Amino acid sequence: MVKFFRTTVTRTTKSLALTLLSGLLCVSALADTTPSDSTNLITPFEAVYYAYKWDDNLGSAKISLEELSEGLYSLTYQSKVSKFFLSDKRFEHSIFMVEGDHLVPQQYNYSRTGTGPDKSLKVEFPGDDGGQIQINKDDEAYSLPWQGELDNQLYRLDAPIRLSRGVEDLSYDFINYRGQQRHYGMRVLGKETVDLPYGKIEAIKVEIVRESKSRYTLAWFAPDLNYQLVRLQQFKDGDEQGDLRLKAFSTKRSD
To answer: Name one Pfam family in it (predicted).
Structure first.
């Protein structure tokens, strides 16, 4: 995530802020599952966001969901942010299947370019219990036992499904964009109207629960937009690191 700066720019500041644009929540694995047709909310869409720090617009991000064939989907995330002589571009691509009430990851790719070293990651999921996750990180290859984790993106599709059913506490396990196993939780705080570049809209406010005590993350999901993410804000030691706000949203139903 790009660190969002005032007048003095440092490499440390940059690295802190770019984490937000790369997908702060970084959570996966289904929780509080109840039988239902998840495809009701797995509808192809495109969402565009502006990235801010202290209300200064530093760039944009886009999330797109496409149906490749029956039950097979593609989810992409891309962002571009810059400030002064610093820049950061990120791209994430997930291929997954919908099986009943589950999102089943198939493959995840991540890349980062810009100021500083380039990064890349490829994750192959086995699809069967007891299999191994194959990870290629830059020039390093290794495997991990698969215990139901999803990839770094699929929370964006699972959380709206759970929230639409009134679930207020979620628990997620996932493989992050560094190829590491992580666990986060999500807790509903209530409803509020948020003022975005998209316009004013009522949203469900959620706190991201994690082990780190120094970081505090909030997310807003809008029922009128299929419960999709409309805002994401993170603080570290009380200082705002970044704020993603929805600019445009559109859906496209498959034929």
So the answer is: DUF3108
Detail the DSSP E strand segments found in 70-180.
Answer: 72-83, 86-99, 102-114, 119-124, 132-137, 140-145, 169-175
CA distance 253 to 236: 39
Band of the pLDDT at 41, cuts 50, 70, 90? low
Fill in the DSSP letter of residue 8: -
Q: What is the DSSP letter of 33?
A: -
- The closest of 227, 123, 109 to 170, measured between CA atoms, is 227
- The stretch 119-124 carries a mean pLDDT of 97
Tell me how many helices (H) and strands (E) the chain has.
Answer: 2, 14
Which is nearest to 72 in space by CA: 42, 101, 30?
A: 42
Q: What is the pLDDT of residue 254?
A: 57
Q: What is the pLDDT of residue 22?
A: 41
* pLDDT at residue 8, as a whole number: 29
Percentage of residues in the chain with pLDDT exceeding 90? Answer: 64
CA 202 – CA 79 distance, rounded (Å): 25
| Phi (first) and psi of residue 177, to 5 degrees | -75, 0
Distance CA(7)–CA(127), nearest Å, equals 48
CA-to-CA dists, residue 210 to 36, 106, 219, angstroms? 28, 26, 14
